[in-house]
Amino acid sequence: MDYSFPRYLLSKQTVDDRALNKDVLNALRVNLLQQPVTVIEVGAGIGAMLKRLIQWDVFCTGDYILVDAMAANIAYARQWIPQWAAEAGLSVERLGPDQLHLGDQAHDIRVRLECADVFDFIQKNEKPADALVAHAFLDLLPMPASLEKLFLLTKGLAWLTLNFDGVTTLQPIIDDSFDEKVERLYHKSMDGRPSGGDSRTGRKLFDHLRSLNAQIIAAGASDWVVHGSDGTYPADEKYFLHFILGFFESSLKAHPELDPAMFGNWLAERHAQIERGELVYIAHQMDFLVRKRS
Prior knowledge:
The chain is an alpha/beta fold. Helix content is 41%, strand content 27%. It is built from eleven helices and ten strands.
């Protein structure tokens, strides 16, 4: 299977749409009523969150800066953002190689793409935004030191979404004990990343935010729940599931605690369950809307 990260980001749009905690989202909407505003999104991928916030009438006027370290994501965003914006009826004007203006009667938005490591971007950024967005990103970073640095990008507000919180469920069960071992080792691999990260970032954010004297305005679960209906999955969610299994394979391949043949058979059966529309995948995550205090 051809694993394309931009396509994975495309395929998980509908999954994320369902997962995002609507109470936390509504709190963001209330706190962004006075527009225009400037928003900086870190780990922004291909721009799916920008699309979502425009479609959901959360962000209508101001500047949106997308920061991502993967050149492939930014390259995809250069073409994809104008495409979906035009399809949505927005006027699209290119102001430069990585700058766009999107507009209609209700929207007046300037978009800037930044291909940069987020911490390098923090060093060069001259003006903090009204709001920081970090979507499915914080659980990849060492905490709480990274959060303190990220807070330099906002005057106060931060929307921190889809922070993984240590529960993965795959059904139907293949083998109770082997399924449990794979899940445990998969989570452990997240805790051992050289770049940092924590498989229980979601729950630990309460303490991390408290240590930084941040006000938690709203918090709630944002679980991924993916299942088929009559043997098919919505949108491109079949690809999403195959890609998730790719994370399992790359994280645990040649792991000394896993029998290679058993793990290979386990992966093959999980992929077959997806093809039959049988696999149910649940991942527990947490959303936060916070305000940093000076």
